[in-house]
Specification:
31% of the residues lie in helices and 29% in strands. It has five helices and seven strands; from the N terminus they run βαβββαβαβαβα. A seven-stranded mixed beta sheet has the order 2-3-4-1-5-6-7, sandwiched between helices. α1 (16-23) packs across α5 (156-173). The longest helix has 18 residues, at 156-173. It is globular, with a radius of gyration of 15 Å. 40% of the residues are buried. The structure holds guanosine-5'-triphosphate and magnesium ion. Residues 16-17, 47, 67 line the site of magnesium ion.
C-alpha cells in the first residue's frame, strides 16, 4: 500500500475546504472558526489550522489531503503542512482577481518548500464572472509546462480530475 500526501493551498475563500470535503471518504477533519474581523463580510468561517481528508484510489494507493488556511495570519501552518508532501494544488478563486497576486505568492512559497510537482486549479468555473483558465495562466504568469485546470470544488468529479492530474505528474517523477 502506498500513501501519497498532497497539500491543497490557495488564497482566503478560494474553496480549499470545499474541495477536500467534496472528495474525502472520511468526514473531513476541519478547523473552521468564526471570523470576527472585517473579512466576515465575505464569509462566516475560515480554516485556522488545516483540513484533513482521505481518498482511496485503489487497493494500492491512498491519497491524504491536507488543506491549508488561506488567511495570512495563519500562514505559520503552511510549512508544517507541507512537510513530506509529494505534490500540491494551488486553488485560485477565479471570480476574485484581487486575490490573483496572493495566489501567485502562495505558489512561490510552496515551491520554495519542496520541488514537488504541482497543479493550479481555476476554481468556481460554475460562476458567471469566472476568469477562464487561459486568462488565469497569463494573469498569474504560470509556465506553459504547468497544468492549469478548470475546477468546481463543489463537484466531486471535477475535484477528482484535478487530483488525478497531480497524481500523474507525481508518478511521472517517480518511475517504478
Ligand atoms: N459556486 C461555487 N462556490 C464555491 C466553489 N468552491 C467553493 N465555493 C464557495 O466559496 C466559499 C469559500 O469556500 P471554502 O471552502 O470555505 O474556502 P477556503 O479556501 O477553505 O477558505 P479559507 O479556509 O477561509 O481560506 C464557500 O461559500 C464555498 O461554498 C465552487 O467551485 N463554485
Ligand atoms: Mg478553509
Amino acid at each position: 500500500m502506498h500513501t501519497v500526501k498532497m497539500v491543497v493551498t490557495g488564497p482566503f475563500n478560494a474553496g480549499k475546504t470545499e474541495f477536500i470535503s467534496a472528495v474525502s471518504e472520511i468526514d473531513v477533519v476541519s478547523t473552521e472558526r468564526r471570523i470576527t474581523d472585517a473579512t466576515s463580510r465575505i464569509k462566516k468561517e475560515t480554516t485556522v489550522a488545516m483540513d484533513f481528508g482521505r481518498i482511496t484510489v485503489d487497493d494500492e494507493l491512498v491519497l491524504y489531503l491536507f488543506g491549508t488556511p488561506g488567511q495570512k495570519r495563519f500562514d505559520f501552518m503552511w510549512e508544517i503542512l507541507s512537510e513530506g508532501m509529494l505534490g500540491f494544488v494551488v486553488l485560485v478563486d477565479s471570480v476574485r482577481p484581487e486575490t490573483f497576486r496572493e495566489a501567485r505568492r502562495i505558489l512561490d512559497v510552496f515551491r520554495s518548500y519542496a520541488s514537488t510537482p504541482y497543479v493550479v486549479a481555476a476554481n468556481k468555473q460554475d460562476m458567471e464572472d469566472a476568469w477562464s483558465p487561459e486568462d488565469l495562466r497569463i494573469a498569474l504568469k504560470v509556465q506553459p509546462e504547468v497544468k492549469l485546470l478548470p475546477c468546481v470544488a463543489k463537484d466531486k468529479e471535477s475535484v477528482k480530475g484535478v487530483l488525478l492530474e497531480l497524481l500523474y505528474s507525481i508518478l511521472e517523477m517517480t518511475p517504478d
